[in-house]
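Researcher: Checking consistency across runs. Here is Type 1 pili subunit FimD again:
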Amino acid sequence: MAHQKKRYTVNSLGLFILIASAQAANAEQETQTTTHFTSHFFVNQNNTNIDISHLEKGQGLIPGIYPLSISVNGAQVTDTDVEVISQENGTAPCITHPLAVQLGINTPYYSRYTDITMRCIDIAAAPNSFLTLNAKRMNLDIRVPQIALTTTRQLIEPNLWNKGINNFRMNYLASGSKQSRDQQSSRSQFYTDLNLGADINGIHFRSNLNYSDSTGQEADWQSKESYAYTAIPSLRSELTAGETFLRSNLIDGFAFTGISLGTDRAMLEPRFQGYAPVIRGIAQSNARVSITQNSYTIYEQFVPPGEFAIDDIPSLSNGDLTVTITEEDGSQKRFVQPYTQIPNLVRPGLWEYAITAGKYRNDNTDEPWFINAEISHGLDNDVTLFGASLVSQEYSIHTMGVGFNLGKLGGFSVDASRSYFRPDEIGKDADGNSYRFFYAKSLTRSTNIQILGYRYSTEGFRTFNEAVIESDGSIISQRKSRAEATLTQSLGSYGSLYFTGSQEKYWKTKGERNFLVSGYSNNYKDMNYSLSFSHNENLNGKRDNTVSISASLPLGSKNRRPTYINYQQTHSDAGTDFNAGISGLLSDERFSYNVTSGRSNDDLVESSARLSYSGQSTGITAGTSHSKYHDLYFAQAGGSVLVHKGGIIFGRRLGETAIIADTGGVEDVTFQTGALPITTNSKGMALLPQVQPYRQQEVSMDFSKLDANLETSNRSHFITPERGAVSLAKFNIYPTQRFLVRIMSDNGQVAPFGSLIVDAGGNNVSTIDSSGYALINHTQNQSSYFIPGTGCTFSLPDQIESAPGITIIDKLICVTSGDN
């Protein structure tokens, strides 16, 4: 087979549009009439019968799979691959049932007009429904009446949920420090937080462990939770069993061992968002911040000097958070930040429930059995009724309340609880009432009251935690009232401020427990500055007040990676500290640094340095600080390890639900997730660590960074993972070479204009233009091509060249069957 070829680098898009212009002619016509061509005008020497029907009807694309940009009623929805199929009146895009759900189309509506059990739903069969395919722009515009749309595109049916692949996972966060004082005594500390898990056939096993070790103390392993859970789609619920925590909107949380079945709100459309606290404080040095709840350490991290805000603590149950700040010199500050979930409003007509049974879990007290039941129902007038009852051997509590959705005025709830405590041995009988009020509202676009609450309890009221502790003979302070508020306010060009505070009063105690953190931030030209204040007061009247002011100014050109000069001054009851330094990113933006030097309240000069690495597979921070009387060295590392059938992946810390993008072994393919992109490893896999369960996720590769000699049949992948799943999104990427060939018959005639070129699998791959040229994307597994109606075949070079561009072959002979 003879052919002559040249190699040029040309604009493939321009060539494609030029060659496809004949195909796209009909797509530009607004008339409903069909243009007919007679094949007698297409003369060829052999008088072969050329089928040119694909040029006179249809949407301007020959049957095949195409990447299309899809909009619904003028709104861009997604970019995905769509199959174009042949129909009696031409070609049309195939809208499958999964694709219709992705687009938010209400498929039951179309059952009145067409058979929706067919593979392709005929959208245009319904009144006022149209599909317009623009072949030049590769855009599909779908127009449907409003009644044909679902209320939310993100509410995915259970039959589309993805259970994920079997795997073993581990999140790790390890920190260590060594501190010496007066160049004599030294103290080492080590802390590790491990989140272990395994997913097997839709059942998710989890275990959260802490390990701590320090000089002079015994090493200690602590298990926070070890449990398994799975989705129950028919009930829109989740079943959990093992050692875990009661996570309730109505009952104060506690650790227990048992079983729980309850509504998973993530399976439903969110109507009223929950509240996640931001822990704010001020560190005077490179300090360790520890957060505990219900006697369990749930978070620990090193923070640099100055104001800090921690907004990534794990999911919580109701209960106070104890925050401990341990400074370099060993001094500690503690404050208690109340945490309460707002009872969620329920959509009208829906029910939510939770049933829990098991044993109270605490190594230091008795572990009584209990059963807890909760239920909420949304009435048609945006009113939610809810109630709960917990019954144990010596204790019971019953709660009833109502929540109101006031639209623009926000949402609030009120409830009343009655507790009964009848200890068998130690303690006195106690009955009491408690009343609560919560309010949440975004007052304007710039003002957000995240939570405003108040609770009053009579002297005899007990929570379950308090009753268990008291039945063991311990004496506890009985809370009388608690008020709490969190407010954020944007002042536009005048900056922004925040406020978080709480006040607690107790029976038979004169003291109060007060907590307040507030701050203001703004910028002047390129300089950012902030002012913050914190106040803590315990029941003994001991107070701690801290005021901090900080400023940061970038140096150098704005177009370059800036270096910042920083200044901070902190004044507390112990005195005044100040420090100055520089920070920024290195040439490799995964590395950041911070160097400071300052003077403490006791007139000591202190210097510190910190280097952080934020990579695709791990995050590492290391630092040191020195003064005349002490030296501190610390390091911290965090990340994840995931083992599955396809190998081992190291990545950033995993969320509860994740996705693996599998490119079939192609390395360095980029996927965007969060602020930093993620690229595939040597096995062609990338771990997208944080995705939302029960919501359709679009996993898209950055095609602009794909090698020019690679092609893919699906640039994006849609998947809806269950909670806890690690779902697999497979991408078919294969090597290809683009050929622009002028096809001639073995008698020297140019191939007929308008002829289709079909590969060995029967797929239409191109159309011949008036000069006999065709643009073909050739892959290694394509052995030959043929032109229907002519009876001739041809092949392209087997070697796939790695150089980008298009190979031009000016003469390629298409051999008629039977010829040599």
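Researcher: Does this match what you'd expect to see?
Model: One thing to look at in this run: The chain has five helices and 54 strands.
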